[in-house]
Amino acid sequence: MEPFRMLHPDLVPQRRESLQHAASTLVQMGLDDTVLSASPVHQRLARVVLASSGVIEWTPGYRAQERDLDERFGVVRVGGDRGGIFLSGVLIAYLDVLENAARMRTSINEDSWRTLLWAPTALFDHVLRRPQVGMTVMPPGCGTESLSFERTQAGQRLYLALMQAVRFAVSGVVRAEDDRTLVEDCVTLATACLRAAAVALAFAADVPEGLPLPVVETEEHRYLWQVISDVRAAVPRARFEQFSAALRRLNDVYTSCPLLVAGG
């Protein structure tokens, strides 16, 4: 698989406004979340366009602390058009998972598949302030190819992209101050992305050879650890319980970092 461009963790956008221009541009080009329910031919074309430097401006040369993790999954850290890189990275990661699922059967159940595919729609709804009208979920294919390495790679990359989306959403919670509506919108998005991230890791592990190595603590995990108390103080109790449950699910089942000591 070709290298996967991601923002350096310090460059992850922190406000909805910083993504609105990129999101609007992608919508105008027909390259928003709706592409995930398009035909396979359209999806393959969309991936080529999204990965093109002629569409998204990016600059190489950035390195994150998790160099071994990046090298293992072919991640290249970049700067440039932060909004474009961020949103296109999420979409590219999803398109790779969808292609793999079409070519190699997956045991991920229907409810989990829907949970996985809801996150990008929730992200674009949040950024563009769209009313939530649901989404069209295309079931995975029934292919018989053997693409275990590609599956693990695609699932782990999507997990990393979704964790940056969680960081973006949680930053919105922390910075929203007295805007209660925005706080709830942000924590709802963070919860949706955490739930999807857990499914992405399950997809990465859905290979005949057995489970891949657990994901180590990432920069996004460390950020969540730093602000978890702020999130708990900022959001209504019921919303925080949903958020912490999604975080606990991700932590207990799939990762090795003890993130939720302070979030119980």
Relative helix content: 55-70%
Which sheet architecture does the biggest sheet show?
Answer: 3 strands, mixed
What is the H-and-E element order? EHHEHEHHHHHH
Number of helices: 9
Rg value: 17 Å
Mean pLDDT: 87
Strand portion, in percent? 5-15%
Give a verbal description of the structure:
- There is one protein chain.
- By secondary structure, this protein is mainly alpha-helical.
- The chain is 59% helix and 6% strand.
- Helix 5 (110-128) packs antiparallel against helix 7 (180-204).
- Residues 256-264 have low confidence and may be disordered.
Give the helices and strands, then pairings:
Blueprint: E1 4-7, H1 17-28, H2 40-50, E2 58-62, H3 67-72, E3 75-80, H4 82-103, H5 110-128, H6 148-175, H7 180-204, H8 219-234, H9 237-254
Parallel strand pairs: 1-3
Antiparallel strand pairs: 2-3
Helix pairs in contact: 1-4, 2-4, 4-6, 5-7, 6-7, 6-8, 7-9
Task: Offer a concise description of the structure.
The chain is 59% helix and 6% strand. It has 264 residues and is mainly alpha-helical. Strands 1-3-2 form a 3-stranded mixed β-sheet.
